[in-house]
Amino acid sequence: MVFASKSECFKCHTKKDGTKGTGTAEGAGPPPQKYSEACWEKPRQETGLKLVGDLSQAGWQYVLTDDSRRSYAAYLPTRFTKDQTRLFFNSIKDGTDWKQPEGPNGPIPRKTAWMVSPGGCSCTYRYGRIEVEAVPFPDWMLNLMATIMPMCGFTDRSLWPNSCNLNLYEDGGMSVGWHSDDESLFQGKFIDVRIISLSLGAKRKFELRANWPGEAERPLRSVMLADGDMMTMEGMTQKHFQHRVPKEGHVDGPRINLTWRWTVKHTPRCPMSRQRRF
Questions:
Q1: What is the pLDDT of residues 89-115, one digit of tens each?
Q2: 204-242 residue pLDDT tens
Q3: Contact between residue 48 and residue 37 where contact means Cβ atoms under 8 Å apart
């Protein structure tokens, strides 16, 4: 048995007391209505969703291809030298005003920052009771994106993500628990979204689990992300899957992870929400 959740095994759905569980990921809520008997969501061929693997020639490898849920996650092994990743790591670590907000059980087990593209966005990043103030992209961020985004198929700067969440894990004791990036800013429960991530520093485990796995489905996927590796989550992954970076006591070194996103629904107090749309 593998108790990847707190209450039941994710392989056989047996609870810790020996009774049978539902198979629903903790905190996922009731399953949504399916698009059809065969599909959870409208097929990608009908929506026109283009994956990063379709847009880029970098050689992305899809570790999650769930056409029924229109949910996808891709992996790209590092394309950088050690000198390059060391430069990236140091620029980010030294150029970021890291915060460690207080949660209901004390400080969260990692340091974090929230950055947005220049142009007036003031949206804070909220998850649970945590709130992080926005900081405009510094020059090093724009320089880094000029390297990363073409590898994802985005050569036009106007199509780049307009926000980035940064996390610093100082050792294997720091982590982030099961969650989805389904905040209102991104609308990931309702529309296709892309999230692009870059890992730097110590190798850490990244896990994905289905919210409502079927009886014969593989519910858990795990990827080891090393220095310079990249990942995507695409389509409706934030609706149908959760992800985490678990604690790993044997890891001594620090890791930085950047996750670029597209903010599509600005908060009412943000100046960007009051811009006229034509």
A1: 999 999 999 999 888 888 999 999 999
A2: 999 999 999 998 888 899 999 999 999 999 999 999 999
A3: no
Pair 101, 131: CB distance under 8 Å: yes
Q: What is the CATH number of the domain that holds 96?
A: 2.60.120.590
Query: How far is it, in rounded angstroms, from Cα 105 to Cα 262?
Result: 30
Size of the chain, expressed as the number of residues it contains: 278
Domain span at residue 148 reads 47-273
- Single out the residue of 111, 107, 64, 104 nearest to residue 208, CA to CA: 64
| pTM as predicted | 0.89
The distance from CA 98 to its chain's CA centroid, rounded to whole angstroms, is 19
Whether residue 30 lies inside any domain: the answer is no
Strand order in the sheet with 241-245: 176-179, 241-245, 204-210, 220-225
Q: Is 117 among the domain residues?
A: yes
